[in-house]
Each structure stands twice: as C-alpha cells, then as structure tokens.
Amino acid sequence: MPLNFTGLFVTDAAYQQAQAEFLAIDIPSVLADAAWGLHPIPRLTVSMTGKLANVPQTTVNVRGVSGRMPTGTTALYGTPANGGNREDLTMVTAVAAAAWVAANPGATYVIEVDVITGNSTRFAGTIVEILNHELSAHAEPFADFLIAELAAPGTGVWETVDVQHARLGTGDTRYQLIGARYVTGFHGADQEPRYRVRRSQDTVANATLPPGV
C-alpha cells in the first residue's frame, strides 16, 4: 500500500528539502552505526519508510501543514470492509485494538501523519525532527502492530502514545539512528542546529540522540 507525502511536502521548498534529506538517511543500519550502539539491531534491518510503504491493507499519508507552532500528530484509522464507518484506533487499549482487527477481516487502515510548522519555523532541520518523531515513535509502532496482527492475530505489540513517548525519552533506536545521521551529516543554519533546537523543545517526549552525538 502507498506511502504518500502531501500538502507542503509538494508545494514548499523547505519541506521538499527536508523530505529529500530524510529519505537519504532512512536506510537500514550498517556496520558504521555500531559506533552509536545502533548495529546490529533487528528493527533497523529495513528502512522505516520502506516498511511503511508495505504494510498490508494500509495507506500511510504524511502531510505538511501550516500552523502556528512546530509540532506533529499521528493517528491510526480503520475502515471495515463492508463499508462501515471509519474508526479512530489511536487511543484505544491493546485488547480493543487487537479485537477490532480480528473482528474486521479485510478492513483497510490509514496512518495519518501531520508535520506542522509556522512561517517562522519552516526550516529543514525542524521539519526533519518532527518527521522523525512522528514516524519513529508513532507510525512505525502502529505499522509493526498491523503487520503482526494481520499475519497472526494476537501477536501484535500495541503501545499507547504515552509509552511511545516514553520510549523516545529512554532511547528509541530508530529515532536515534536517523537523528544521529542527520546531525552528523547535514550542516547549515536551517539543518543540524534547527534539528537540535526542535528536539530540545519537545518536552513531552524528551527525545534523545545517542551519547556523544
């Protein structure tokens, strides 16, 4: 199923730059990443965007949005195959999420991600950090759950948004890998410094980079 970049990712130069930079570093972990303690790690043997583009019965929409403050949101929706109403599964319990998938064979799913900046915060580094947060902390765990549940009911691991944020604070390996690659590989006033500023402002998740980066 598709992974779509829409909204400002199509029309805005800063978003287009950020998307290109993000995709350039979202590659499977390699031996050099062992210097950060991020190789070999099973979760990182495939690229994140490659995984998101291949979740069964699922479309992933990543939208660039204009707003007042730099932030992001991610939501998971399911639509029954019989044409029933779309349901928001983002905040349900693990038991409810697994039960909904099991009760709706053939359902289709949408992971919707908004990457939001204002005119004064529209920098590549800011956009990359929000994109990394939303995809690493939220979209990929939802994808992992769906991949497992659709293959074998009862095997998916479901994390609440609070748990996803807590894992960012204790060291989400995907977030750390992409973040380390970005701040060490992209330099300029609107790149690495802006990434670090946005990361430090994310007090809800307290996202971390590997030690020494």
Protein architecture, described:
- The protein has 213 residues and is an alpha/beta fold.
- It has one domain.
- It is built from eight helices and five strands, in the order E-H-H-H-E-E-E-H-E-H-H-H-H.
- Strands 1-2-5-3-4 form a five-stranded mixed beta sheet.
- A hairpin with a 7-residue loop joins strand 3 and strand 4.
- The chain is globular and about 50 Å long.
Low-confidence stretches: none
User: Could you give the order of the helices and strands?
Assistant: EHHHEEEHEHHHH
Average pLDDT, all residues:
97
Helix content: 40-55%
Strand content: 15-25%
Query: What is the structural class?
Result: alpha/beta
Major sheet strand order = 1-2-5-3-4
Beginning-to-end CA distance, first to last residue:
35 Å
How many β-strand stretches?
5
- How many discrete domains? 1
Shape by Cα distribution: globular
Rounded to an integer, what's the Rg over CA atoms?
17 Å
Total helical elements: 8
Largest sheet: 5 strands, mixed
